Amino acid sequence: MSTNTAPEPTPKKQVEAAILADSVPQLKAAVEHAADLLDLEECTELMNDALKNVVREGRTALAEHLLYEGADITALDVLDVGQKPSIALFNLLKSYGYDFNKAGPPDPTAKGRTPIYKVTHDAELVQWLLDQGVSVDLGHEDYWYWARPPLLLQESASIGSVASFKAIKERGAKVGRRTLHAAVKEAAVLGCDPDDTSLDSRQDDKDGPTRGLVDLPEWFHKKNRVEMLRYLVDELHLDVNGLDSDDQSQPSAWGTPLRYAQRERETGAAVAKWLLKKGADPDAPPLLPTATPESPQNAD
């Protein structure tokens, strides 16, 4: 009588199981087994795919083993290194020659960004990158449909912290005409109220080494957005009535910051009210109903 036995897992499944278990010894055994069964090209492809997966998960020890075994550092892109970054991970990637000025393709996903775009919420990570001499003179200020990427400080105004914004600005990055607009848009989307001080003294108590946007609780993101609005208007004195473009026929041109808040009809009322208190003109050029599927509201 024959006995049914389960087939041996494929090398790919063994590597995936090791990653799931977050086990370096298990990953080492899986890679050694793959080297016995696969040719060099297949084994390298398997390790490169695994490297991308573990870097996206912020698993530095697993990434270090794969790089030691010959995984190709150039297989990584901005979406990999910016997903769950940490100082330890960045130091590892630096030691294997990763180029932190490497931009992603100008497609709807990577949008031409470099890693610093992905970490502007975290001043420590931003400072680490600045200390490596990464470029901050990046992006486009004016555009017809979208910017891939936008100015770095425009991105920071949208998702970053004030501390990061200041550090990047001190290195010479440009404060563009859409910087306040970007901050208003994100704050309005989140339903922030710049007059609400309930989050002002709250401190981040997140555990764990990685500092990706996906790790941030909603309250922390809201706190950053409120602090950014106050800084841009009350300290940097950006124009609350500034137009986002000289050509208001552009699909990406929505008018003044107030129009960006009013565009979020269900969540932007508190931001709009705050802007009016700061001198926003309620009779500014009206929002043009010309948004297309390729306009920034969908592309970014």
UniProtKB/TrEMBL annotation:
It comes from the Eukaryota. Residues 192-213, 277-300 are annotated as: Disordered. Residues 199-209 have a biased composition (Basic and acidic residues). This is Ankyrin repeat protein. It comes from Paraconiothyrium brasiliense.
